[in-house]
Write a structure and sequence with these properties.
about 130 residues, lysine biosynthesis, three-stranded parallel β-sheet, 6 strands, NADP, alpha/beta
């Protein structure tokens, strides 16, 4: 592998550990888009990130990043007026993680205390995230 190599992982919570060890062994930067990671794996990512560059994001879309900016600007009002916030996460029944990584990101960005997340897996739906404020 050359100096411009990078690992790009969007696999699953089982394979990511092998990729982490290879990335560390060969000192190759890593971009991780895998969801459903347990706390042990997240701690491992944090540890290895001290040795090599790692970017971890459960959703790399510009739309989600714009939503993050919106929440930064409205969280003050969500708290003051005690808004109820709901995220509904619906995906196909083969999706392993529930709620999805995207829903967890959105949930973490909503800073009011009156919030809930609902998740369902339905055979005929590819993926849907709905936010109610």
């Amino acid at each position: 592998m050359n100096k411009n190599s990078i690992f790009l992982d969007f696999s699953n919570y089982i394979i990511i550990k092998k990729i982490l060890f290879l990335s560390q062994k060969f000192l190759i930067p890593l971009i991780i888009g895998t969801t459903g990671l347990d706390s042990l794996t997240l701690n491992l990512i944090f540890y290895i990130s001290k040795k090599i560059p790692i970017l971890l994001s459960y959703n790399m879309s510009i739309g989600l990043n714009i939503l993050n900016l919106i929440f930064i600007n409205i969280n003050f009002y969500l708290k003051i007026y005690n808004f109820q916030s709901f995220i509904i996460d619906i995906h196909h029944d083969q999706k392993i993680d529930s709620p999805s990584g995207t829903s967890l990101i959105l949930f973490s960005k909503i800073k009011n205390f009156n919030k809930k997340i609902f998740s369902a897996r339905i055979k005929s739906i590819i993926g849907n995230h709905v936010i109610y404020l």
